[in-house]
Design brief:
Layout lengths: L4 E8 L10 H16 L8 E5 L9 H8 L6 E5 L5 H14 L5 E8 L7 H4 L13 H15 L3 H17 L12 H6 L2 E3 L2 E2 L9 E9 H7 L5 E10 L15 H12 L8 E3 L5 H10 L5 H9 L16 H4 L6 H12 L12 E7 L4 E7 L2
Parallel strand pairs: 2-3, 2-4, 9-10
Antiparallel strand pairs: 1-7, 1-8, 4-7, 5-6, 8-11, 10-11
């Protein structure tokens, strides 16, 4: 990309239970903080990209939010790939800037399933619901069951992912769940849907997050204090329903990562940390493998040795991820990637200069990847 793109500012609300907050009010708060973090005036923003709220889909939501913020964006709208939307929107913003369609873009999301409605997560899913297969977690449980069938040590890998995420969340003062997890507690937890235990499953959270995207050249002109370069991005969409897939443990995450790696001119060995969409532990396990970080057996050994922690060789979800920081779908992972590149994370990885971030939506239906640098 000739002009280059950077994340110039980040912002978020509190995470957890936020009674009385609408998605519009939370989006506004996160955007206001991202604008302040960038050190710019609202008037320079000419693009607004927003993820549709999962809990309550609204028509023309982007225009509703723009009106509430007194913005008249010349480029933007609402995007929906589920949890993969956020990185995809950042990629769209970067491409729009490259094409001269806008100069400064706001990318944001907000949702309130904790105090609003959780119907989107609990609803029957596809035709299989007629046979009793209902809710998102049931779909992931089916995938996890197959993963364990293929790889008997999978529960060790799942446990180590959960333990690392919870350790990082415990160190994060903004995390919704600040409670460390040990293996005995993990093993003794009840099933949510077998084989997924309570600590395999992400939080339900109210909250919002936002980023400001602009060209590197404009960031230099405007004197942005801590711009983080966007080195690469990509996406992949499997689309088909779970029951129609030939292989339950394969998705398009590899295509998404390969696209991002090629764009960045980098590979898995160049990454210093990874912020991976962890709606369920099996998602992280599959993403690590698809991204080329190692075989299932090798990743399990890394986990057993504490390698997923911030001081290990493969640090993951250093703010806690969806398992501990917030169950909000994905943009918080980008914020933590930015903090790692700025050197301001609460679980900072020493000498980190490259970070890969994943987003994923539906039941492994969509995937997007982002690579950040310094």
């Amino acid at each position: 990309m000739g002009r280059g793109a950077v994340i110039a500012g980040i912002g978020q609300t509190l995470f957890g239970k936020l009674p009385g907050r609408t998605t519009v009010s939370m989006n506004i708060e996160a955007c206001r903080k991202a604008i302040a973090d960038a050190g710019i005036e609202k008037g320079v923003i000419d693009s607004l990209l927003v993820k549709v709220p999962t809990s309550k889909v609204e028509m023309m939501y982007g225009q509703t939010l723009a009106e509430a913020m007194a913005l008249k964006p010349r480029f933007g709208g609402v995007f929906d790939q589920g949890g993969a939307s956020n990185i995809s929107m950042i990629g769209i913003a970067a491409m729009a800037i490259e094409a001269g369609q806008c100069e400064v873009a706001l990318v944001c999301l907000a949702d309130n399933p904790k105090t609003g409605t959780r119907q989107a997560y609990e609803k029957p899913w596809g035709e299989a619901a007629d046979l009793g297969w209902s809710s998102v977690v049931a779909g992931y449980a089916m995938i996890a069951q197959r993963y364990i069938h293929e790889f008997p040590d999978a529960e060790d890998l799942f446990a180590e992912i959960a333990i690392a995420c919870r350790a990082h969340g415990a160190a994060n003062p903004d995390a919704q769940l600040r409670l460390p997890l040990d293996r005995d507690t993990y093993d003794s937890a009840k099933w949510v849907v077998e084989p997924l235990r309570r600590d395999d499953c992400c939080l339900i959270s109210d909250g919002a997050a936002a980023v400001v995207v602009m060209s590197e050249k404009l960031a230099n002109v405007m004197g942005i204090a801590a711009p983080v370069p966007i080195l690469g991005f990509g996406q992949g969409n499997s689309s088909s329903d779970v029951t129609l897939r030939r292989d339950l443990t394969q998705t398009q995450a590899d295509i998404s990562a390969q696209t991002a790696f090629k764009m960045a001119g980098l590979g898995p060995k160049d990454m210093d940390c990874a912020q991976l969409y962890d709606c369920f532990t099996v998602t992280v396990a599959m993403t690590l493998e698809s991204y080329g970080f190692g075989s299932r057996a090798a990743l399990t050994e890394v986990g057993r040795a504490g390698g997923f922690h911030s001081n290990g060789p493969l640090p993951i979800n250093t703010a806690g991820g969806l398992l501990s920081e917030t169950g909000m779908p994905g943009l918080q992972l980008v914020l933590e990637g930015v903090r790692q590149m700025r050197g301001t994370s609460t679980s900072q990885v020493r000498d980190a200069t490259k970070c890969i971030v994943s987003n994923q939506g539906g039941i492994m239906h969509t995937h997007s990847t982002l690579i950040l640098g310094q």
